[in-house]
What we know:
The chain is α+β, with helices and mostly antiparallel strands. It has two domains: about 300 residues, Aminopeptidase; about 110 residues, Alpha-Beta Plaits (2-Layer Sandwich), CATH 3.30.70.360. The protein has eleven helices and 17 strands. A seven-stranded mixed β-sheet has the order 1-2-8-3-9-15-10, with helices on one face. Helix 4 packs across helix 11, helix 6 packs across helix 7 and helix 9 crosses helix 11. The protein is globular. The two termini are about 25 Å apart.
Amino acid sequence: MGSDADFKTELLERFLRYVRIHTESDPRSDSFPSTPGQLTLLGMLADELRALGVADVRQDDHGYVMATLPATLPADIVAERHVPTVGWVAHVDTSPDVSGKNVQPQVIERYEGGVITLPGVEDQVIDPAEEVALAKAIGHTLVTTDGTTLLGADDKAGVAEIMTAVGYLVRHPEIERGPIAIAFTPDEEIGKGAQHFAIERFGAKYAYTLDGADAGCVEFETFSADAAEVIVEGRSQHPGYAKGKMVNAIKLAAEFVARLPQDGLSPEHTKGREGFVHPTNVEGNVQRVVLSFILRDFDTDKLLEHRKLLEGIAAEVAGIDARAKVRVEASETYRNMGDAIGRVPFVVSHAEEAIRRAGLEPFSELVRGGTDGARLTAMGVPTPNLFTGGHNYHSRREWANVDEMAKAVEVLIELAKIWAERGEAKT
């Protein structure tokens, strides 16, 4: 197999091309995908897969792109070794938390250390004092934003890595491997990446998302997640004649937020296995206000406690004025994938061995968020998450390490070999 350097030119070219396409997802959209730019990139990926020589490529009515690389192992060996179809998955959308429009990437060859200035905004820098991963990036090729947008390494780094690995395997049919399923998904950042995912069409028994960060990391335990809306109904009235008549939903919504825990149970006060109740958006007027929340915890049972907390506050706020109505509507988003993956430990151990063969030391971290893998695992396809070399996601200070991205490509190729050697339940 080629060295890391052999992947870097193709990887960088692909990555820079992909991040310039505006694929920011929109949680307020009723369409699927939620934004048209995602279809643009998904269509491009389908065309590029065909150009690489992948025959089985399909883009469905929801935009998902799926393809399968057939096994190079003879069918009898595939059966003998219990080599399943294994999937690689990445998402094309970028977070709506920060603009992803008109991304202007900055390439830094052979990073020498120190603070990185982002040229588009005077006071935007990437500081090694805050970004500890930069200490391991000396001499590497880095890509940053210009400071006006996010970069889109989440998850276009993963997209570029899968495409580069597919191209390598197509060019090297002498590498023994089982069948590999490829999927590119929309709207992951707004929790809908697997909403219309065609499991049977995908065809994989196990899979890996390429959506992590630090080199060497394999993640297999995520938050469990719910979404909630608090709907506050007041009474509108002309303000000049409102005495005794108006019930201001905005003020009641402010009361609701003020009664949330102030020193815990929030993202800014939690880490590790600690969960949170997080208000993410507010919309409305005097008549009606909607507060949007995300609820997170590694212990799924605690999500019910978080819902009850909101319901308790709703009852308190409704008691301020009998004419007001305050209700909570909650729904499931995804569940911790750790339990299901724990029943098939070879899915993780194969990934750890692939990381070692790529010259890295594997490690695991809790995912204080979710991936398409959490939903796919719940749908019956155990799907750990692998690193991409992207860093500081959802930020104008987002950056990617192209040398680490090349290692991710190498891990995918080694992973294909290991599944062919070991199959299921063989460590």
